[in-house]
Design brief:
homodimer, two-stranded antiparallel sheet, 164 residues, DNA-binding, alpha+beta, 6 strands
Chain lengths: 164, 164
DNA sequence: CGGTATCCTGAAAGATACTG
DNA sequence: CAGTATCTTTCAGGATACCG
């Protein structure tokens, strides 16, 4: 903020956080994404592992397919009829930082004494992976106080604020 | 995964994603966090900016206070009576990567033609900040395919799976 | 087995009205 | 102004039943 514009006057209609939250901002959806990242693909596996009602899972998956995050693909095991599996699309895989950031926060603030139930490792070297903030100049950014938010090129004033 | 344990057999009861999602996995809560990160602190400012019913805002704030993410602090403007403002606790501020990851995904996949409404900059150098994955050995990790998830020290088998 | 349509119920969103 | 109690209504979760 530069002092001439207040956040309170900015429109929320095109906020990327709000738009993304409208799609994945739901507890069931987030754990569903977690399971899809972990390689679960079959409807019944997902339903059993999540402990969610199948109707709910059906709706969530349909929503994610509609949003382009999940692809429903037919497959056929030898001698069996066609089934479908659900796998993340490229756009869906791009949500990995969201899921890892949630996991990291839970590990840091809510974990049991015996440690985190899941660790994510670098495929190449096996070291644990964490979420970091980086700037375009290559600096590491302190998440606690290294960031400043500013209105971007798509910023709009709130309708009410225009004639305020 | 090492082939001997399947994700489907792991318990979800202590999953950090699920625990975190249970607190913040809600569209209103996520945009509320966004506004708190952007420095909004007063109840009415938040209510007006979010466009949410005040009863709902009241409940969300109370929940976040209960969860330790938000602190409700009294303050007094000169000549006025005591009011309260709501600001993120240290734990709440630790959620910045979650919000930035959501924002980044929305910017990449849902933005309007005129660009993102908000940009986040490095306080020290002004360059735009992005969310990155890094491993403990210092490597950059490709979010698309550089990660492998494994059961961690706190992993538990699902009760049903034990005698399966 | 792999889902979806339907229904029921509880919870949560929001409007209204009230209090310090 | 800064909230909260209360009420109504909508909506999401889940059980059941049903189809491919």
């Amino acid at each position: 903020m530069d002092g001439t514009t207040r956040w309170a006057d900015l429109d929320t209609g095109n906020c990327s956080v709000a738009r993304t939250a409208a799609i994945v901002g739901d507890a069931w959806t987030l754990v569903l994404l977690r399971d899809l990242f972990n390689g679960l693909r079959r409807f019944d596996d997902l339903a059993a592992h999540l402990g969610v009602a199948r109707t709910v899972l059906s709706r969530r998956l349909a929503g994610l397919v509609d949003a382009g995050l999940v692809e429903r693909e037919p497959y056929r095991e030898p001698g069996r009829r066609v089934r479908h599996e659900y796998r993340l699309s490229a756009a869906g895989r791009d949500l990995l930082p969201v899921v890892l950031a949630l996991m990291a926060w839970g590990d840091a603030h809510l974990a049991d004494d015996d440690g985190p139930p899941v660790v994510v490792e670098h495929r190449d070297c096996g070291a644990p992976v964490h979420v970091a903030l980086r700037c375009a100049s290559g600096h590491d950014v302190d998440p606690r106080r290294g960031t400043v938010a500013r209105p971007g090129p798509g910023a709009r004033l709130r309708p009410r604020a225009v004639d305020a």
